[in-house]
Design goal:
The complex is a heterodimer of chains A (113) and B (110). With 113 residues, chain A is an all-beta fold. Chain A has strands at residues 4-6, 10-13, 19-25, 31-38, 42-49, 56-57, 64-70, 73-78, 87-94, 103-104, 108-112. Chain A starts with a strand and ends with a strand. By secondary structure, chain B is mainly beta. In chain B, strand 9 and strand 10 form a beta hairpin.
């Protein structure tokens, strides 16, 4: 069974903290993604990666960075957490190609206080 | 600017009836479209997809229709069941990433 695993289901962090969200996939997929979901705004793409050490900005990259040192792992970093980064964060992976589906992890609900 | 639009935030349907969820897109370069279903506190799960070379794809109770000239697709669920109550997201593949709509919350009442 295909699997995308996010390290935490729920996180509470303080304003100004550096936050790491980890994601691991076991499907040997080339592409990995980070989205956030907010009520009324749908899923918005933060960053994606199509290969190890490669990264591309999505629609809302401000305040975030990413790291992909190994093919199976894609980390999202909040350099200095702010309350407007309170959200549901979703990691996904997909094989190469345009006609493919993405598989999502279970999500991390991050609250910044 | 949002390239994939779901203009109905919510929909309520009686059990056994048909649910029709709609989606519009603006980018004519999109050539692969998907529907995802999402329950609260879970990640989205893939439901059904359609390539731009087709106008219909069916999988059990779920059928997706694509009208390329109108840049419109729809998801039909028939018959609707209470377990179908969830948020449904339409997505289009731009080559690397999926572009999502804002979602439609479907409630199927007994």
């Amino acid at each position: 069974d295909v699997k995308v695993t996010q390290s935490s289901r729920y996180l509470v962090k303080r304003t100004g903290e550096k936050v790491f969200l980890e994601c691991v996939q076991d499907m040997d997929h080339e592409n990995m993604f980070w989205y956030r979901q907010d009520p009324g705004l749908g899923l918005r793409l933060i960053y994606f990666s199509y290969d190890v050490k490669m990264k591309e900005k999505g629609d809302i990259p401000e305040g975030y960075s990413v790291s992909r040192e190994k093919k199976e792992r894609f980390s999202l970093i909040l350099e200095s957490a702010s309350t407007n980064q309170t959200s549901m964060y979703l990691c996904a992976s997909s094989p190469q190609g345009a006609s493919t589906e993405a598989f999502f992890g279970q999500g991390t609900r991050l609250t910044v206080v | 600017d949002q390239q994939v639009k779901q203009n109905s935030p919510s929909l309520s349907v009686q059990e056994g009836r048909i649910s029709i969820l709609n989606c519009d897109y603006t980018n004519s370069m999109f050539d692969y479209f998907l529907w995802y279903k999402k329950y609260p506190a879970e990640g989205p799960t893939f439901l059904i997809s359609i390539s731009s070379i087709k106008d219909k794809n069916e999988d059990g109770r779920f059928t997706v229709f694509l009208n390329k000239s109108a840049k419109h697709l729809s998801l039909h669920i028939v018959p609707s069941q209470p377990g179908d109550s969830a948020v449904y997201f339409c997505a289009a593949n731009s080559g690397y990433a999926l572009n999502f709509g804002k979602g439609t919350s479907l409630l199927v009442t007994p």
